[in-house]
Design goal:
- This protein has about 250 residues and is of the alpha/beta class.
- About 20% of the residues lie in helices and about 20% in strands.
- It has 2 domains: about 1-55 and about 170-245, Dihydrofolate Reductase, subunit A (3-Layer(aba) Sandwich), CATH 3.40.430.10; about 75-170, 3-Layer(aba) Sandwich (Dihydrofolate Reductase, subunit A), CATH 3.40.430.
- It has helices spanning about 40-55, 90-95, 135-145, 155-170, 180-185, and strands at about 5-15, 55-60, 100-105, 125-130, 145-150, 170-175, 195-200, 225-235, 240-245.
- The radius of gyration is 18 Å and the shape is globular.
Length: about 250
Amino acid sequence: MNRPYVVLGVSASLDGRISLGPNRTLMDLDERDEVLGTREEWEDFYNELARRNSVDAYMEGSNMLVAENEELRPLESYHGEDDLYSDHLPKEVVDKPGRDGWLVAVDGRGRLRSGYKGEENKPLLHLVSKSVSPDYLWFLRKTGIPYIVAGEERADLELALIKLKSELDIQTVLTSSGGRLSGALIKKGLLDEVNIRYNPVIIGGFKTPTLFASPELKEDEWPISLSLIKGEVTDTGHIYVSYKVE
């Protein structure tokens, strides 16, 4: 396979909602969000997936970090002549002593502007498209954040994953992004394993993000088939299921 093995691990309500409402990010969590699992329960679930799959990159979509309705930070204008639309993988980051994997943000529109560079041993890498402004790419470069360019208007997930393997030798990717990212991955045949922790609650909501957000099936399209790896029902009413994507 010319791309990494891609694993989804996500916590959801019984009706498939992955948050309590639209435009909520990882930064907005409060005590009500614990109906989808406490931090300790979620870390145990996620860390077990990481151990089982020997994960070396953790990937999230920009909507997990920046709400759609959030006002974006303005950027300094770039007036140079460098070719910013080529992959930026500085050796001091790629070959940093003690580096133990990667954090990867799918940011095809250039919305992540906090300057966050990742963890001490897991640097942050952006996956961007050619539609982002040179101002944004210059911001990433001067901040010391690596990026890979893949796609025209939106991030080309297949090409981005191929580059992650060929350029950085990333073999396995774990993502907890349900909604649009997981919907795009599974529709494009880029998701290999699905792990869901169902919680005994119903959330509802017409605009609340769901496990897999993607366009409706066309008349000649079939649902995506899964084969069960394992399943478990706990005394507390939680359901754990793991599937291979056919």
